[in-house]
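If you are new to this repository, start here. Below is one unmodified record pulled from the training split, so you can see the exact layout before writing a loader.
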Amino acid sequence: MVKILVVDDHDLFREGLVSLLKADKSFNVVGQAGSVHEATDLARKLHPDLILMDFSLPDGDGAEASATILTEHPECKIVFLTMYDADEKLFAAIRSGAKGYLLKNVPVAKLVSSLKSIEKGEAAISGTMTMRILEEFSQHHNSASSEMQSIHTILSHREVEILQEVATGESNGEIAAKLFLSVNTVKHHIHNILTKLGLENRKAAILYANRAGLLKANKSN
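And here is the target side for that same chain:
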C-alpha cells in the first residue's frame, strides 16, 4: 500500500479526504497535518511515500514545504490538491519538485487514479495544465541562451549540477560519488529533470544540455 500524509489546514475537508482515501485498499493514510511545520515534522517521522498537500497553509506555502521535504526525503512524491488555478502557483509547485498539481474540484475517481499513476512514474497534472506549462517554458527554447535561462528557471540548483554531469556522460554511480549522494537520489533527480524539461530519456537530456551550452558552462566553472 502507498503510505500517504495528508496536509490541509481545513479540518472538515482534510477529514473527508482522509476518509475517501482510507476507502481504497491501495492507500494507507499514515498521518495528517494542518501546517508547513507539522508537515515537515511528520514527513521526518513517518517517511510517507506520497504527500497530498494544499498549496496555501497558515505558516507558509506548499512550494516551500515541498522543497524542504524533498531535500531531506527525495524519494517522497508530493502532489498538490488546491483551489488555486493560477499559473504562478502551478509553476512554483513544479519547480519545487512536486509530481502533481490537482484542483479541489477534481472528480473523486480522477483523484484516486491520478494518485495511483504517480506510483507508476506518471505526473498527476491535468491536460490543460500540462499545456500551460509547455507554453510557458517553450517561450525559452528558441535559442541557446534562452534554453540556459529555462534550465536555471525550471530546475533546482542540485538538478542543474546533476544535468551538467549527465551531459558529460557520467553514470549514475559516478555522479553519486562525485556529489556525495546515493544512487537512488541521483535517479530521483534525473527523473525530475526529465519531467520538468519534458524530455523522454537520458539521451534527450544530454542533447538538450549541450544545445543550451550547459556543458561549456560547466567546463568554464
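Two things worth knowing about this chain: The chain has two domains: 2-126, 139-220. The mean pLDDT is 85.
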